[in-house]
Structure formats: C-alpha cells, structure tokens
Design brief:
The chain is of the alpha+beta class. It folds into two domains: 128 residues, no CATH class; 76 residues, no CATH class. Helices cover 43% and strands 22% of the residues. α6 links the parallel β2 and β3. It is globular.
Length: 232
C-alpha cells in the first residue's frame, strides 16, 4: 500500500470540514492522541461540550484572516471594541473570565468573533512584520488558494487538514502565530509543529521546507514555505 493513496485540494465550508471531524484523522487529533492515548476516546465523545474559545485560538484565526485574506474580510468577520480592554492592565480581559463573557453578552457579540483594540494592534504588528519580510510577503501575496482543505488517505487512514494558502505551482504557505514570551524552537516543540510538517511532507510528497521568522524582536510570528506540492 502506498503511503499516500489520494491527496487532493478541495474547497469546503467550515461546516463541511469540521462536521466530518471524527471521520478523518488530522494533525490536531494526532496531537490529542499523543498527549493522552487512554483518554482519546473520551475526548472524541465529549469534545463538543468542552470546546470553548481560547485567547490563542481566536487570535490565531483572526491573525490568519487579516494577513492571508485581508483587512476587509477581517472587518466583516470581527467586532472590535474598547470595552474588552482592562483599564488596569491596558490589555484584553481573559476570554474565559466572567467580565469578558458579560461584555460580549451585553453587546450581543459571539465571543469567538469579539476582539479588543489591544488585540487588533497586536494583529497589525504581526501583519506589518510579515509584510516587512520580502520573502514572506512575496510567498503570501502569491497564494491564489486560501484556506483550502486537503483530504486523502495516509497509510490507509482517511486524513484531512487545512492549508493556509498555496499558489498555482503547488507551493504551500503556513503561517504561525507565536507567544511573545517564547522562542521559535520552543513553539515548534511545545505545539508539536514537527508533527504538522511531517504530515504536510507525507500527504503532499515534498521535502523542501523554508522557515522565516518574520519578527525577530518580539518573536510573535513566523511563516513556513513548503515547496513544491505534487498536485496543484
């Protein structure tokens, strides 16, 4: 049996992609399994009940949208308000705090789509960092397919994943947001990014990978280019 039986880009809505979550293996599920093999079945049974927006997840999604698709799409998707800024710290209230939740309720805003002006300033700084790096900027600007799913079989197991972007030649761009208090190497290993790259290289049959740290001062964003995918 070949390592990869079929692997094709496809355009899926979030509902279609996440609705089939349990039917396909993915990088995120592999990470969950690696963290707790004995508790994996229980996680799959109860994951929808336990899913809540986290600061890292919301900020990552918002940053990807702004950088990969543009600020017009960002403005249509997110509600930005000063009310979510803690006057004592000058930073955003914790997303899981009662204060954050009550503000979202009063504004009738989905917590997944609520950002503070402090959040947006951080996202703009990351956008500037990426645009200021020539190689990263060219790679992202060349993407003609954004947020595409890849589906196929990996070692006989149905597999799906999402690509941030790819161009007409089949090169993949993967954008990663980082905690400002950690290094790139710490991020790669703490979040098992090596597992993500392994699955990219297996599914897409590629071995040429370039990593660009686009903001060396604050260490809050890096961009990975993977060239070339066998089927564009």
């Amino acid at each position: 049996m070949p390592v990869v039986e079929t692997a094709r880009l496809t355009l899926l809505s979030d509902k279609e992609y996440y609705g089939a979550y349990g039917q396909y293996m993915s990088v995120s599920l592999l990470k969950k399994f690696a963290e707790d093999p004995l508790g994996f079945d229980d996680y799959m049974l109860n994951r929808k009940e336990n899913e809540r927006p986290t600061d890292a997840l919301v900020m990552g999604q918002a940053t990807h949208l702004a950088i990969m698709e543009g600020w017009e799409d960002f403005d249509r998707e997110y509600v930005v308000t000063d009310d979510l800024v803690n006057p004592r710290t000058g930073k955003t209230y914790g997303r899981e705090t009662q204060k954050f939740q009550s503000i979202c309720e009063s504004l009738e805003v989905n917590p997944w789509r609520a950002l503070s002006t402090y959040d947006v300033s951080s996202i703009k700084a990351m956008d500037d960092a990426v645009r200021g790096d020539l190689e990263a900027s060219v790679a992202i600007s060349g993407c003609t397919k954004i947020e595409r799913a890849i589906r196929g079989k990996l070692h006989g197991v149905p597999f799906q994943g999402k690509l941030d972007g790819c161009d007409d030649n089949g090169s993949i761009v993967d954008l990663k947001t980082m905690r400002p208090d950690s290094t790139v190497i710490e991020q790669i290993y703490n979040y098992r990014y090596t597992m993500t790259v392994c699955n990219f290289t297996q599914c897409c049959q590629i071995d040429n990978i370039t990593c660009r740290v686009t903001d060396r001062l604050t260490k809050n964003c890096f961009c990975v280019f993977i060239n070339q995918w066998f089927d564009s």
